[in-house]
């Protein structure tokens, strides 16, 4: 009879297989959905005959090719991150940006060479619309926005929050949304105030309940800065521009985004959060997870 730990190990391997990402025994322990000792995980792995291993990685039977895929993506990630740092310098100087993080990384350095660059941005309170508008304008002028014809090394600005909305739980599909938990711990700080990344994780303590063995690794952003708290009273002045950016953006926003706004966790639009993911495939991921578990 299988133990609860063995079942959790299979579940973890099945989830990452969806993203062609084999895991080491240490990573399996980190990404488990139950509390366990690392030594217990190593022992249980040896007792599961339906899991294959190669070069220190564990995977679903017949999926040895994803070991090579992971190794290739690791090399691609170095180039992608270097490109991302170069491109964000085009707009990181904008006022009110607090942090810029590389997002949509499920598995360490699991980045496709042909993919766009998804960013998660934290702004000063009540400034998401202004930052979104100005950054979108810059990348549109430079032809760096993703399209159906072109995605490689383009910039996707689909998730912005301000400092008052660091609790991202409203972006979860449900309380068992493992994908969003992996998405959250996969955020990679590239620029901004060094405390913001930690603040985001503290504001989302629920992730430690879903992934109790995971611990924050040391991660320093590309550049640190201190916000200027000595500025004169320009609050009302900038509020005017924020409202203008809001109104303009709502006019040009894709119809599908306006129609789906705030109806579920895929598209959230308000003065503090812009989450623009109309092609939410999490329901399909949960089905794929179940299908892969059947093979184990």
Question: What's the topology here?
Answer:
Layout: H1 4-17, H2 25-31, H3 38-47, E1 52-54, E2 57-59, H4 65-88, E3 97-102, E4 117-123, H5 128-141, E5 155-162, H6 178-185, E6 188-192, H7 194-203, H8 206-210, H9 235-252, H10 255-260, E7 267-269, E8 273-276, H11 282-295
CATH architecture title of the largest domain = 2-Layer Sandwich
* Distinct helical segment count: 11
The number of strands is 8
Structural class: alpha+beta
- Provide the succession of SSEs: HHHEEHEEHEHEHHHHEEH
- Major sheet details: 6 strands, mixed
pLDDT averaged over residues: 88
What's the number of structural domains? 2
Terminal Cα span: 14 Å
Shape: elongated
Strand order of the largest sheet: 6-3-4-5-8-7
Give me the CATH fold name of the largest domain. Beta Polymerase, domain 2
Helix content range of the residues, please? 40-55%
Low-confidence stretches: 224-234
What is the alpha-carbon Rg in Å? 20 Å
Strand content: 5-15%
CATH structural class of the largest domain: Alpha Beta
Task: Specify the CATH homologous superfamily of the largest domain.
Answer: Beta Polymerase, domain 2
């Amino acid at each position: 009879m299988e133990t609860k730990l063995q079942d959790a190990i299979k579940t973890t391997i099945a989830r990452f297989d969806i993203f062609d990402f084999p895991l080491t025994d240490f990573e399996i322990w980190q990404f488990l959905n139950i509390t366990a000792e690392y030594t217990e995980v190593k022992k249980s792995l040896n007792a599961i005959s339906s899991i294959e291993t190669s070069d220190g990685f564990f995977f679903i039977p017949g999926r040895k090719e994803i070991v090579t895929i992971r190794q290739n993506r690791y090399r691609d990630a170095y180039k992608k991150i270097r490109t991302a740092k170069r491109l964000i310098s085009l707009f990181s100087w904008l006022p009110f940006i607090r942090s810029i993080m590389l997002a949509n990384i499920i598995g360490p350095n699991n980045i496709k060479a042909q993919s766009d660059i998804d960013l998660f941005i934290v702004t000063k309170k009540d400034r998401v619309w202004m930052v979104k508008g100005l950054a979108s304008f810059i990348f549109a002028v430079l032809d760096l926005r993703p399209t159906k014809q072109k995605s490689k090394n383009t910039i996707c600005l689909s998730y912005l929050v301000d400092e008052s909305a660091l609790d991202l739980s409203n972006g979860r599909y449900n309380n068992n949304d493992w994908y969003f938990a992996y998405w959250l711990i996969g955020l990679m700080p590239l620029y901004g105030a060094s405390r913001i990344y930690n603040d985001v994780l503290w504001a989302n303590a629920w992730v430690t309940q879903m992934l109790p063995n995971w611990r924050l690794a040391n991660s320093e952003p590309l550049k640190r800065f201190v916000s200027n708290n000595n500025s004169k009273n320009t609050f009302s002045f900038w509020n005017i521009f924020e409202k203008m950016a809001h109104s303009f953006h709502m006019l040009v926003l894709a119809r599908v985004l306006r129609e789906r706004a705030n109806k579920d966790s895929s598209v959230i639009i308000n003065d503090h959060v812009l989450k623009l993911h109309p092609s939410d495939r999490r329901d399909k991921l949960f089905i794929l997870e179940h299908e892969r578990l059947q093979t184990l």
